[in-house]
Amino acid sequence: MPTAPPTAPHPRRRHRWGEHGLAWAFLLPSLVVFALFIGYPLGRTLYLSSHANDLFGAPSRYVGWQHYTDLLTSADFRRTLVTTALFTLLTVVPGVLGALVLVLLLETGIRGVRLLRSAFALPFAFSVASASVVFAVFFNPASGVVNGLLSHLGLGPVGWLTDDRYALVSVAATTVWMSLGYNVLVLSAGIGSIPGEITEAARLDGAAGLRLARSITVPMLGPHLFFLTVVSTVHSLQSFGQIHILTKGGPDGATRTLVYSVYEKAFAYGSSDFGTASAQAVVLLVVVLACTAVQFGVLERKVHYA
């Protein structure tokens, strides 16, 4: 009995497989980069966090959750977490709100607004190292600009970077100044994207000044404020350069954040405790993900329903 000839693949199905193959070909370079620079380091960090290491930092034996248990029962690590939280609050809130106030003031029609906008955006052009060196000069206890101004007011010198009461605030102020330019640029772009018809209609209804800002400008800037809050939080949790240049985590651990603690355990002062440092890095990752999830769950919902 003659057999039926094999049916050719459906042209639509063949076209679909061709599209999938082309899509994977375009995605492959990004997937390779992601695996090399994110996937492998993350897997290696998890591996090191579950192993003890020898004097040279090489993994020696499996210890499971021991590093995490030691961290959670350590008073020094709890202090580091509190310092990290305080540093984040001292940088995110003033950085975002300060930029918002500046942008609103620039929209009042004062003279030289373009020059002022460029001046406020200037910190964005500074690197972390250069900005930190500048503020190290400002906060110098003997010849610094800040103490020089205090002396003219009849006040004694303050150890801005050497006194544990002021060191964290000083580093936070440096970080706020460095983030101010970027925040101003984002919010200025946000105000520029507000339709002029909305603002004009509000002015015709009698809204002006603070009422206009509260009722129209700030609500319309909700997505931009949300974006800056998330980005500033992640940036603050990962801050390292200004802490290393200004205080090196001191005095007496007053500015030792979680990122700097990871550096100290892994590399500083000849240390090679990669197991503990990797466990702290995992904790930092969890903290960043938790803060981002909370912000997306709470702030983004308020932005959408405002």
Automatic annotation (TrEMBL):
This is Sugar ABC transporter permease. Keywords: Cell membrane, Membrane, Transmembrane, Transmembrane helix, Transport. It is found in: Cell membrane. Belongs to the binding-protein-dependent transport system permease family. The chain crosses the membrane at residues 21-40, 81-106, 118-139, 166-191, 212-231, 277-299. InterPro entries: ABC_transporter_permease, MetI-like, MetI-like_sf. The keyword Transport applies. GO terms for cellular component: plasma membrane. It is a multi-pass membrane protein. Pfam families: BPD_transp_1. Residues 77-295 form the ABC transmembrane type-1 domain. Its main location: membrane. It comes from the Bacteria. GO terms for biological process: transmembrane transport.
